[in-house]
Amino acid sequence: MGLLPWASPDCQRVAKGAEKPSEGTDLLKQLRPGSKPSQLDHQILLLDGAMEGAIVELSEELARDLTQAQVDPRNKLNELTSREWMSETVSVWLQRGLGAQHPDAQIERQHPAPFSFSDVSRMIRFFTKRGGVVLDPFVGVGSTLKACALEGRVGIGFELNPHYAQLARERIEREVAPDAPTRTQQKVVEGDARKLVPSLEYDSVDFVMTSPPYAAILHKEDHKARQERRSQGLDTRYGDDPADLGNIRDYPAFLEELATILGACSHPLKPGKYMAVVVGDFRHKSRYVMFHADLARALETRNFGLRGIIVLYQRHKRVFPYGYPFSYVPNIHNQFILVLQNDKQ
Ligand SMILES: C[S@@+](CC[C@H](N)C(=O)[O-])C[C@H]1O[C@@H](n2cnc3c(N)ncnc32)[C@H](O)[C@@H]1O
Fold first, then answer.
1. Does the CB atom of residue 217 touch ligand 1 within 6 A?
2. pTM for this structure?
């Protein structure tokens, strides 16, 4: 968990009632694995990441568990200790990418809308145990599968565009070490998710992790960034295939199709298991469209209950002078991760 901005190495204890972080610093030394927490020792200060300076309140039980770094035997969801678990429930995450110049970012760059495999790794570690099966119905260049290979999970990805499907396969070969335990258990299937999702075996998947295509309406957005990609010879859209959800012009029709595919994931997903969907809101002319809310509501009528939303802060994005000096036009620098649970009986 060393990659996490506010995971264990960055946490510091403070005494209950301490006003300044420095007052609690000495208490950190008192808490070595195996040592007993004192009565005062029921808060942790987060020192890094988007939530820097936040104070975590601990229950008696958690304070005791924190000194032991063991996975609770009642935990059927994941393999996290109490400390690792708590930090992951903070609802704001800082998006962590490799940076465009990193050698392992070269395949990812060829896709117009990849998500960061390290954010996906965090999700996979929270929502599955090792050996668990993860489905991504819109796998693009395989960020979910790379995360699965690195985290010892089994991945299945569907992708309509054969070029991206091929890049996803190459990515596992190039970017995942040969001795990674589930490197050879990552499967990319080319085709339309409308047909492929229902073909999966009932109750065969432990977690769905995806970011869907955006409606054609979005092709107009963020035009400066898109012009730059075009000038570098990089794709700005997924392709011309009419089966591509990204080519549906009408937003309500797009939403309906997308919700139908994601809703169908309830069939292969085991009961009570989770689906996480990364989406961004957008502007259409002067209207702000709450895509994340529209999709969450649509999925609530299709066997999925919304359990929470993680705000993914994209601090690396550049700020453009949209609207200046006439009107308020936001630079949208966050995405949402919708966390939904399979309510099927
Ligand atoms: C937002 S991208 C996913 C990117 C991916 N998370 C990654 O990191 O590479 C959505 C993907 O869905 C694919 N797609 C669009 N319509 C599809 C369909 N009907 N069936 C399967 N894939 C589709 C697009 O080609 C695109 O690569």
1. no
2. 0.86
Whether residue 139 contacts residue 158, with contact meaning beta carbons closer than 8 Å, is answered with yes
Angle at CA 289, nearest 5°, toward 285 and 295? 145
Q: Is 117 in the pocket of ligand 1 (CB under 6 A)?
A: no
Cis peptide bond prior to 162, omega within 30° of 0 = no
- Ligand 1 atom 15, closest CA: 244
Q: Are residues 118 and 97 in contact, defined by beta-carbon separation less than 8 angstroms?
A: yes
Structure confidence by residue, pLDDT tens digits, 78-123: 999 887 888 889 899 998 888 878 888 888 998 888 899 999 999 9
**How far apart are the two ends of the chain, measured CA to CA in Å?**
34
Please tell me if the CB atom of residue 262 comes closer than 6 angstroms to any atom of ligand 1. no
**Ligand 1, atom 17: closest residue by C-alpha:** 244
Q: What are the tens digits of pLDDT across the range 18-69?
A: 334 333 333 333 444 555 555 445 666 665 555 666 777 777 777 777 666 7
Angle at CA of residue 49, ends 45 and 50, nearest 5°: 100
Domain with CATH 3.40.50.150 in the chain: 93-342
- Of 111, 81, 106, the C-alpha closest to 214 is 111
> Measured from the CB, is residue 158 less than 6 Å from ligand 1?
yes
CA nearest 96: which of 329, 332, 330, 312? 312
Q: What percent of the chain shows pLDDT beyond 70?
A: 77
| In the predicted structure, residue 225 carries a pLDDT above the cut 90 | no
Pick the CATH number of 93-342 from 3.20.20.100, 3.40.50.150, 3.90.950.10, 1.10.357.10: 3.40.50.150
User: Does residue 6's CB lie within 6 angstroms of at least one atom of ligand 1?
Assistant: no
d(C-alpha 26, C-alpha 63), whole Å: 17
